[in-house]
Design goal:
Number of strands: 19
Distance between the termini: 21 Å
Bound molecules: flavin-adenine dinucleotide
Radius of gyration: 22 Å
Helix content: 25-40%
């Protein structure tokens, strides 16, 4: 038993992952969470017979989840039932113009070939390279703590990195293989998960297409929150103690050592602190100025991933012409992207996404009803008011009713909206961001905010604002990476630096 104690601030995917890995190595771990339930951005709520996942809805990279549970001698199957969705999702290009993206690669090849002669063969070539990137990227690069160039000075890895087109943009890369606009739209979609434009995203991330096409889109029955419930159960089994309604307000530091964590109701002491709450919040609001690693200018010049305007809707009838995942790409992404990244403002003609988990899972809505989650990606830092939300509700509903060819609004019996102000209030999110820091080339690996504080010797960071980046699988990995770094320096057999 390692007698050292660790406090983890925050109980999102990264915090639970870090806490469980550290408890498994013998640390005494306490998680302090400001909200009344775990999960962070992946929380859920129940109302009127509906179960709404509040954040993530796409279950990609099942191997990352499986390897997480297997680390502890468990399997995802012990905690939740996964089903593979087929079609994986549907993309709507306009009225009566949509495509169901099939789970089968053969069917997808046939679809591509119909659009562009020779594109099935191009897809094979593209995926072969993407598979290689996934193998090196996910199995090696994302598990690097990004603390020193030395981690990458391994000839084989360097060669691999160069072979992975790290320095070319995804935008250029995809156009070397395909020219049909619908194929390009489909292939660029997974890049949106990384929080940046294809023009600014390294071609390394075609590994996301491998994740999409080859590994598939899955769904844990009961909803995404089942993953959190499983992870918390496993954490508790390993001895992690969770304390909710503990809003951390201060980290006290004495001679570069964090000594105490002060919450609204209590004071805690620990040998090590792992902050999984938003990096900017911890630095700027919880630490004394002289112990902050980054300036306000640094944060102001970071490219944040988008925020979101979300509607959780209960519909008192079953809807037609909807799949589980529906992407409405019936407007041009160029102007919307410009209004997210270049000239931040509320979008004029936004693209949007609708998740209808009740299409797959009857348990998330009352009988005969539909559970809808509508998301519009928007720039962080916008002024968020009820009027604006309502304006976008009407805009999206007009389009959704037209594109699915049915009335929906009169059947809305439950409605809740969620945007910047909620992200700030619930998660202390910098500028109300939803997905953390964008994965641009200049914000990759060593160039991300460091996983270890530069000023406080026993303070570490994890989560979507540090390595490896935004998304559920990266956050799960981030927790594992930080736990390894903590153990290297603070386990009883480690030499303290
Ligand atoms: C709307 C939305 C949709 C998404 N969709 C997907 C998807 O489909 N697939 C996917 O892979 N990813 C998706 N993501 C991204 C994914 O959900 C996140 O990357 C991931 O959940 C982040 O986990 P985290 O642990 O880094 O942070 P968080 O989940 O934010 O956890 C941080 C925790 O710290 C707590 N905290 C903050 N301040 C304090 C404090 N002072 N004291 C105590 N606790 C504090 C917060 O309450 C929170 O619980 C989505 C995100 C959002 C918001």
């Amino acid at each position: 038993m390692n007698e050292k104690s660790v406090i983890v601030i925050g109980s999102g995917f990264s915090g639970i992952s870090a806490a469980t890995c550290l408890a498994d190595q013998g640390f005494k771990v306490t998680v302090l969470e400001k909200n009344s339930t775990p999960g962070g951005r992946a929380r859920s709520f129940n109302t009127q017979g509906y179960t709404f996942d509040m954040g993530p809805s796409w279950y990609w990279m099942p191997d990352v989840f499986e390897s997480y549970f297997q680390k502890f001698g468990k399997s995802t199957a012990a905690y939740y039932d996964l089903v593979r969705l087929d079609p994986s999702y549907t993309v709507v290009f306009g009225e009566n113009d949509f495509v169901d993206v099939p789970a089968s690669l053969d069917e997808l090849r046939a679809l591509f070939e119909k659009w562009e002669l020779g594109s099935a063969h191009q897809l094979d070539k593209f995926l072969e390279q993407a598979a290689y990137k996934y193998q090196v990227g996910i199995n090696q690069l994302v598990y690097k703590p990004g603390r020193s160039v030395a981690e990458f000075i391994n000839l084989r890895l360097l060669l691999d990195v160069l072979r992975m087109d790290v320095f070319q943009s995804f935008h250029k890369h995809i156009r070397r293989y395909f020219s049909h606009p619908k194929i390009i739209k489909l292939m660029e979609f997974p890049i949106l998960f990384l929080g940046a434009l294809p023009e600014n995203t390294p071609a390394l991330y075609s590994l996301m297409n491998y994740a999409d096409i080859s590994l598939g889109t899955w769904y844990p029955m009961g909803g995404m929150y089942k993953i959190i419930e499983g992870m918390v159960q496993l954490a508790v089994e390993r001895g992690v103690e969770f304390k909710y309604n503990q809003d951390v307000q201060e980290i006290q530091v004495n001679q570069s050592i964090a000594t105490r964590v002060v919450t609204a109701n209590d004071v805690f002491e620990a040998d090590v602190i792992v902050a999984s709450a938003d990096y900017h919040h911890v630095e700027k609001n919880l630490l004394p100025a002289q112990y902050q690693s980054y300036t306000s200018e640094y944060w102001d010049t970071r490219v944040m991933a988008p925020s979101s305007l979300i509607f959780y809707l209960g519909i008192s009838k079953r809807l037609k012409n909807l799949r589980h995942h529906n992407l409405y790409f019936d407007e041009d992404f160029g102007p919307h992207a410009n209004e997210i990244y270049t000239n931040p403002k509320w979008p004029t003609k936004p693209l949007f996404y609708v998740s209808a988990p009740s299409v797959t899972d009857l348990s998330v809505a009352p009988e005969g009803c539909e559970n809808l989650f509508i998301l519009i990606p928007v720039a962080p830092g916008l002024q968020d008011t009820e009027e604006v939300r309502e304006q976008y509700y009407n805009l999206v509903m007009d389009r959704l009713e037209k594109l699915t060819n049915q009335e929906i609004r009169p059947f809305v019996t439950y409605k809740r909206s969620y945007a910047h102000n909620d992200f700030i209030q619930d998660y202390n999110a910098f500028k109300g961001n939803a997905y953390g820091l964008a994965n641009t080339l200049l914000q990759t690996a060593l160039l991300k905010p460091s996983l270890k504080s530069k000023k406080v010797k026993n303070l570490f960071y994890t989560g979507q604002l540090t390595v490896p980046g935004p998304g559920v699988p990266p956050s799960l990995i981030s927790g594992q990476v930080v736990a390894k770094e903590v153990a290297k320096e603070f386990s009883s057999s480690a030499v303290v630096v």
